[in-house]
Amino acid sequence: MTVHLEKSEQPPHPLRSLARRPRLAVFLAVGLAAAAGWIYLAAMVADMVPAMDMGELGPGMALFNSFNIFAGLSAEARAALAVICLPEGTSTFGMPASEIWSVSDAALVFLMWVMMALAMMLPSAAPMIASYAELPQPMTGSTGRTAPVVVLALGYLSVWVGYGALATLAQGVLTAARMMSPMMSPATLVLAGTTLVAAGIYQFTPAKLACLLRCQRPIPFFMDRRPASYAEVYRLGIVQGLLCLGCCWALMTVMFAVGIMNVIWIAVLGFLMALEKTVHRLWIPRAIGVFLILWGIFVLALSDAGQALLTG
Predict the structure, then answer these.
(1) What pTM value is reported for the model?
(2) Could you report the average pLDDT of every consecutive run of 10 residues in the chain (312 residues)?
(3) How far apart are CA 204 and CA 56, in angstroms?
(4) Residue 2 belongs to some domain of the structure
(5) How many domains does the chain have?
(6) CA-based nearest residue to 236, from 161, 126, 159
C-alpha cells in the first residue's frame, strides 16, 4: 500500500528547520568558519613539524615535538632537513625565513592573521550575532533574516581584518628590528614581559570594561539602531567589531609575547575572550589581568635588564 502524505504533513526541509532556529543556525555557521581558520593554522603547524624544534614557537609548543619523529635529530640535521623540505627558505604556508619580508611573505602573514581572527574572534562574537538573528525584524522593511545576519558578521570581521593588517605591519617591523625571530616568537624577554604587563593593565581600564559591557549586552544596542538597508547593517557590524576590538585587542596582542604561531595560546586566549563575553562576572577580566601582570613581571625579572636591576 502506498501512503501519500498531505502537503502539511511532509517533513520540513532541514534548511527551513534551521531558519526557524536562528541561534542554532548562527552557531553552526560560526563553527564552520572557525573550523576553517583552525584547519589552516593546524596545516601551518604540521608543515613546520619535520624541520624544526617546535619549542621555538613559544611556551607549550614543545609538546608537539612528541609527534615529531625528527625531534631527536641534531640542530645541524634539522637545518639540512629544512633545506630539503623548504627549498626556497619559506614554508608551504608562508612562514618567512628571514628578517626582511617580501610582498608575498607579508601577504601570507596577513592571511595567517585573518585565519586567527576566524579561529579566535568569530566564536566569541557568536552570541552577539545570534542575538541579532533572533530579532523579530533584523532589518527594517525586510522579512529576510539570513542576508542581514551575514552582512552584520562581515562588518564585524572587517574590523578584525583591519587589525590583522596592523598586526602584520607591527610584526614585520619587529622582525626587521630583530625583536621577533623568523619563527614568529619574541627574540627578547623584555618585549614578551612588557607586552604581558601592558595587556594585563588594560584589563582594569574603563575602556576595557565599557566595551566588554556592550559586548555582553548587545540587544539594547540593536534595539536603538534599526537598520533599514544593508549598508546600515554593515555599519552596525563595524560598530560591534570596534566594541569587540576595544574589549579584546590587548589579549589578542599577547600573541606577540607567547609566539604568534603558538596554537596552544591561540586556543587559550580565544577561550578567555569568549568567557569574558558570556559569563557576566567582573572578577574574570580582573583575574586575567592579574595573571598577565604577574607573568609579565616574572618574565622581565628573567631578562638581562631585569637581572641587572635585581643584582645591581
Answers:
(1) 0.81
(2) 51 50 83 90 74 66 60 54 45 58 85 92 90 80 77 94 95 89 85 95 96 89 81 92 94 93 90 92 95 95 79 72
(3) 31
(4) no
(5) 1
(6) 159
